[in-house]
Design goal:
Helices cover 23% and strands 21% of the residues. The protein is an alpha/beta fold and 354 residues long. It has one domain. Strands 1, 4, 5, 6, 7, 8, 9, 10, 11 and 12 form a 10-stranded mixed beta sheet that branches. β11, α8 and β12 form a beta-alpha-beta unit. The termini are far apart.
């Protein structure tokens, strides 16, 4: 509870959760994204976050900004068609979030095609699939040996592959491999996942963690998804190994109708923070992680969409010009928090390109 608008300290709340779960102060704690994320937020943000102990899912709190490609892109596409040699691209430094983005002149000779779906975008220079996700060198951290940390990092990358790159999941199937890596004792996250696939909506949106496309609307072009991003780690609470992934995925699609050849691209940048916990201190299962936070910033995925699928638009269908300053979905020069801090999730923004 809270008195006079003041929140219970994080330490007392965690002690309450631990005692309520086990009945003894020394027993392992059932992990909760809600309880765990308040500590992170209080360290990173001034003042108490509003409603962090309400029913609203914790730090699923979207951090989600849906940028639809509006008038700027339409004008940009016309410019490419008329004078492709003057198009300028920006490429990140390959180090993921926090790196610098340097302007590089990259002529786009023509619009993307099914044969070259990444043409005209920075992604043409990115790696395919998990090859675009840089991995740190493992070292003994917290309760884990160097070898155990290496396995945790590999499993983190496996989760990213199973949640955002698996062809079956992209076609809309349930991400069984990814879910199997999530701590089954983390009840709030398990409830979210169950609701997200049973009845997706604004509060239980599977797109926060998983990439899915409605096959009745669009189909992916080829078998390649371009990526750029990184995985990092550090020691977390109670000696856990806390792993953060920040990856941008580029998905080329065409309409589902046979013979369609106009290519559109959906770009999704996801940041996921997970904790590989010591089972002596936290209730967990071997080979699974506890989610601390998860959010997505997506371009041309469907503004304010709550269907549980990315719904990209094509040039001829685009009518919403968006609002606010144009943003480059390929720009990774700022962190996700900085990118999203001024975003109103109830409005559609504008992307400078797709």
């Amino acid at each position: 509870m809270a008195k006079d608008g003041e929140s219970i300290p994080d330490e007392e709340w965690e002690r309450f959760l631990r005692d309520a779960e086990a009945g003894a102060s020394g027993a392992p704690q059932e992990p909760s994204a809600r309880a765990r994320m308040v500590g992170r937020r209080l360290r990173e943000e001034p003042g108490p976050p509003a409603g962090w102990r309400t029913h609203q899912p914790p730090r699923r709190e979207r951090g989600k900004a849906w940028y639809v490609v509006g008038l700027l892109l339409a004008v940009g596409l016309l410019a490419v068609a008329l004078d492709p040699g003057r198009v300028v691209g920006w490429f990140g430094d390959g180090d993921g979030a926090g790196g610098t983005a340097s302007p590089v002149t990259e002529p786009a000779s023509q619009l993307p095609t099914p044969e070259e779906p990444f043409r005209g975008s920075p992604a043409v220079e990115w790696f395919d699939g998990t090859a675009g996700i840089s991995m740190p060198e493992a070292r003994a951290t917290g309760w884990m040996t160097k070898e155990e940390v290496a396995r945790a990092l590999d499993e983190t990358r496996n989760f990213l592959e199973a949640s955002s790159l698996d062809p079956a999941v992209l076609r809309g199937e349930r991400p069984k491999k990814a879910i199997a890596l999530m701590n089954p004792h983390q009840s709030d996250v398990q409830d979210y996942v169950t609701a997200a696939f049973r009845e997706p909506g604004e509060e239980n949106d599977p797109l926060l963690l998983f990439s899915r496309f409605a096959q009745t609307k669009v189909r992916l072009v080829g078998n390649v998804v371009k990526t750029q991003g990184q995985i990092t780690f550090r020691e977390g609470k109670r000696g856990a190994v806390e792993v953060t992934s920040d990856v941008t995925y580029v998905y080329p699609v065409v309409r589902a109708a046979k013979g369609s050849d106009e290519v559109a691209r959906t770009i999704a940048r996801r940041e996921t923070v997970m904790s590989w916990d010591d089972p002596a201190k936290v209730i967990t299962e071997a080979g699974t992680f506890t989610l601390l936070s998860y959010k997505v910033d997506a371009t041309n995925g469907g503004c304010a969409d709550s269907t549980g699928f990315f719904l990209p638009e094509f040039t001829s269908e685009r009518t919403d010009k968006g609002s606010g300053p144009a943003m480059d979905p390929y720009d990774r020069s700022t962190s996700m928090d900085v990118r999203l801090q001024d975003t109103d999730e109830d409005e559609c923004g504008t992307a400078s390109r797709s």
